[in-house]
Amino acid sequence: MQSLENHFLIAMPSMQDPFFKRAVTYICEHNQDGAMGLVINQPINITVGELLDKIEIDNDKTQQAAGRAVFAGGPVKTDRGFVLHSPKPGYTASQKLSSDIMITTSKDVLATLTTAQAPEQFIITLGYAGWDQGQLEQELLENAWLIIKADPEIIFNTPVEKRWEKAVSMLGFDVSQLSSEAGHA
């Protein structure tokens, strides 16, 4: 089995699950036990500053970061927050996922997000997408997802409403020509 860590799962146009319709999911972990990822293009009605207030972390509302949207990272454990961020020296609580992306659940990192110590780029998600052993592989066989190597540009710099289209465009073909039928020879 080839690991899909540091890849995007792009929902096929035929995906009808309301949570994953037109979703772009960044895969953080994928091994023989299953997979875990964060949806990066489903904003929810809460800002970073409001979230930090709810968890009683002081923050500077005058900073642009305080007004950023928080994302629904997936339907599992929606009360748990994750921060995907650009590398930052000294963030020992963060795990390196690639040369351009780190992940953390640390309150210490959350406390820096509206300060000069914040990572250059970040997004916060609540919840995650999880797949049991073999479940993601089965969904791939059923043609539910397209796969492409993750691009930090899409996570951190592409407007949220354009992330699905930009990820699809990296595949190099017109997604409207795709069929939801899986081909098996």
Automatic annotation (TrEMBL):
GO CC, any one term: cytosol
User: What domain of life?
Assistant: Bacteria
**Entry's Pfam families?**
DUF179 (PF02622)
Question: InterPro entries of this UniProt entry?
Answer: AlgH-like
Family, similarity comment: Belongs to the UPF0301 (AlgH) family.
Q: What protein name is recorded for this chain?
A: UPF0301 protein D0907_13145
What is the native source organism of this protein?
Pseudoalteromonas lipolytica
